[in-house]
Design a protein that fits this description.
The chain is of the alpha+beta class. The chain contains four helices and nine strands, in the order βββββββααββαα. The chain folds into two domains: 144 residues, no CATH class; 37 residues, no CATH class. Helix content is 19%, strand content 18%. The strands form three sheets. It has a five-stranded antiparallel sheet. Strands 1-2 form a two-stranded antiparallel sheet. Strands 6-7 form a two-stranded antiparallel ribbon.
Length: 258
Amino acid sequence: MQSNNNGSSNQNWTLSFTGLSADETIGMARLDAEEGYYLAKIDNVSASDPSRPDVIYFDCTVTEGKFQGARISKGIKLPKSASLNGSQVGQTNNHFVWTSLFQAIGYQTNSFDQNQNGGQQFQVQPNQWIGLNLHVYWKPANKDLGIYRELLFLTKPVWDSRKALFEKTNSIQATQTAPIQKPAAVPPPRQAPVQQAPIQQAPVQQASVQTAQYQPQQQSNVVAGFSGGGGVNQNLVNGGGEINTASLMSQLNRGTHG
């Protein structure tokens, strides 16, 4: 950087930067693709790690879907009996991975299978793969679970069938693990107050008690008196039917002292 202000308050800088990319800005957050089936463009293919000469590295970018722009990369080991530039480097039984890759790129099986091409060496130019848009399966790594990342290149028919099965399986699992929504509590129905009909009480008919008026009977002119013979003494009753008190007292005295 050079400063050409010459003591002036108006500063002019001449800057030189290298290694900058328009795709790498603060505003662009890293986008990590989830496990799934994608279309991806091959950005780079290399055998760049001298400590791992049996590994070919693939750098790709997802080109469609909600993870468009996500970077995915994987080092794929060469299979057993494979040689790279004349050196025997392959140590892994993963022939199917490379067969799938070559078929996805467009090679015919008889061009790379020595059992079909008369034992001829298969010559490839990896630089021709750069820029190809291929169908891939991608699984990101998870260190906590001990899961390694996986990148497979597939032919279109294989990709279609496996993608459909993957999405169906995920849909079933999502349904089984979805939380059960408990129905909202329904309040008991409100009961209308019972309208009690007024009880019509029949009026009590009080029987009128007819009180018989006492009719005084005409007293008999005969009143029992006291006499020595137990008979009736007519002298005790006067002519009007009333008791003669003087006669009554006289009779009582007689009966007592006689």
